[in-house]
Amino acid sequence: MKTSLQKTTSRPEKGGRIGLFIVFEGIDGSGKSTQAELLAEKLRRRGMDVVRLSEPTRGKWGEKIRELSKSSDSLSPREELDLFIKDRREDVRKNIRPALEAGRVVILDRYFYSTLAYQGARGISLEEIRQKHRKFVILPDVVFILDVPVSTGLRRIKDRPVIYHLFEEKEYLKKVREIFLSLPDPECLIIDGRLPAEAIHRKIWSILCRKFPELK
Ligand code: ADP
Ligand code: TYD
After folding, report:
1. Is residue 207 scored above 70 in pLDDT?
2. Is 72 exposed, middle or buried, given 0-12, 13-18 or 19+ CB atoms closer than 10 A?
């Protein structure tokens, strides 16, 4: 079986330096943006050129997703899928690929694994979702899936306006979590998100240093 790094050898290179592509995933409130920020700061202190991105983006499709999710008529799973893919295609073309080509470190909060988990939990087959991404995604070097029980995630974000107002949100998020935990992709590593943020950060850093000794 190929390793994730072998699979990414088609990733753009420049000046002999390959940009590193790191993704954070997990249910809402799992601690993704906290960890993305801690890691970005650490890498910047080491003089690395880091770009932090997130999906849904602040581009036209990402904003459309936010706007539509506020209205009372909910989108069908396929309409939702279509919008997330349009947003991602644009993110890869405008942001991710150029940053990696420039040798930067890309830290991305949510990627196609979120689509597998969230739109998969709405009934779309994971194979169909993967198929729709096959032609355009750049595979990350490593994906940290921060895992917390749904009740923990929801407790942490109880004051935040949520994009999704699905019925039985808790049941829905349980399905989302199960899909995250079942992903077979070798680049995905599951991390216990219940630990204190600093402890999670140390764990992530030690994994990264083992995988990429040049970071130390
Ligand atoms: P996400 O980006 O996955 O939605 P955030 O990083 O925004 O999650 O964290 C959600 C909330 O939980 C924030 O208030 C944050 O300060 C808090 N938080 C993040 N990580 C932890 C942790 N490991 N333990 C306890 N609280 C955390
Ligand atoms: P979130 O990370 O909360 O973005 P923001 O904080 O900018 O609003 O993502 C919003 C919601 O979108 C979240 O509940 C997960 C969902 N989502 C999907 O359903 N599919 C996807 O492909 C992505 C990227 C997100």
Report:
1. yes
2. exposed
User: How far, in Å, from the CA of 55 to the mean position of ligand 2?
Assistant: 7
Contact status, residue 56 vs residue 84, Cβ threshold 8 Å: yes
Check: pTM over 0.85? Answer yes or no. yes
Q: Which atom of ligand 1 is nearest to the CA of 195?
A: 23
- Using the structure block, give the residue that is written with the tokens 């470190």: 105
CATH of 20-215, one of 1.10.760.10, 2.60.120.10, 3.30.70.360, 3.40.50.300: 3.40.50.300
Q: Which ligand is nearest to the CA of 117?
A: 2
Cβ(157) to ligand 2 under 6 A?
no
Kindly state the helix (H) or strand (E) to which residue 204 belongs, with its residue range. helix 197-211
